[in-house]
Design a protein that fits this description.
CATH superfamily of one domain: P-loop containing nucleotide triphosphate hydrolases
Number of helices: 3
InterPro entries: P-loop_NTPase, Small_GTPase, Small_GTPase_RasD
CATH class of one domain: Alpha Beta
Shape: flat
GO molecular function, one term: G-protein beta-subunit binding
CATH architecture of one domain: 3-Layer(aba) Sandwich
Largest sheet: 2 strands, parallel
Strand content: 15-25%
Oligomer: single chain
Distance between the termini: 32 Å
Order of helices and strands: HEHEHEE
Keywords: Cell membrane, GTP-binding, Lipoprotein, Membrane, Methylation, Nucleotide-binding
Structural class: alpha+beta
Pfam families: Ras (PF00071)
Helix content: 25-40%
CATH topology of one domain: Rossmann fold
Subcellular location: Cell membrane
Radius of gyration: 20 Å
C-alpha cells in the first residue's frame, strides 16, 4: 500500500507471465490455423501490505479495479505486522487456483503442547480443525 513501485512491478510480472504462457502455447500449436487468443489462467493475489499505515501511494480502490479487470486476480489488504488477513491471502489464492480448500492454511490451527518433564518445553504443531 505504501509502494507504488512494488504494485507496478506486480502488474508487470503478471503481464510477463501471461505473455510467456501465450508464446509457449503458440509455439506448441501444430496447426497453421489462426486461433482466437485465449488468455491462460494465472491465479494471483495482490497483498496490499501495511494497510495499518496512514500514508498510501496505492489506494485499495485502484488495486481492486486492476484485479477486477483480470481473470483469477484478487486484492486483499493485509498487515503482516499485525497478522491482519494474512491467512486470507492464501485462502484467496486457493480459490483462484481451484485448489482443495481443506489444504488451505486457514483451515489449520496452531496447537501448543507442553511436554511433561522438568524442562517443560512447549512445541507448536499444525493440526486440522
Amino acid at each position: 500500500m505504501d509502494s507504488r513501485d512494488t504494485f507496478e512491478e506486480a502488474i508487470r510480472l503478471r503481464e510477463q507471465i501471461l505473455e510467456t504462457k501465450l508464446s509457449a502455447a503458440a509455439a506448441s500449436s501444430t496447426s497453421g490455423i489462426a486461433r482466437r487468443k485465449i488468455l491462460p489462467r494465472v491465479p494471483m493475489v495482490i497483498a496490499g501490505n501495511k494497510c495499518d499505515k496512514e500514508m498510501r501511494t496505492v489506494t485499495p480502490e485502484e488495486a481492486k479495479n486492476y484485479c477486477s479487470s483480470q481473470e483469477c486476480c484478487t486484492f486483499v489488504e493485509v498487515s503482516a505486522k499485525r497478522s491482519y488477513k494474512v491467512d486470507e491471502v492464501f485462502y484467496q489464492l486457493f480459490l483462484n487456483a481451484n485448489l482443495p480448500l481443506e489444504m488451505a492454511p486457514n483451515h489449520h490451527k496452531r496447537v501448543k503442547r507442553c511436554m511433561r518433564s522438568s524442562n517443560a518445553k512447549c512445541q507448536t504443531s499444525e493440526h486440522k480443525n
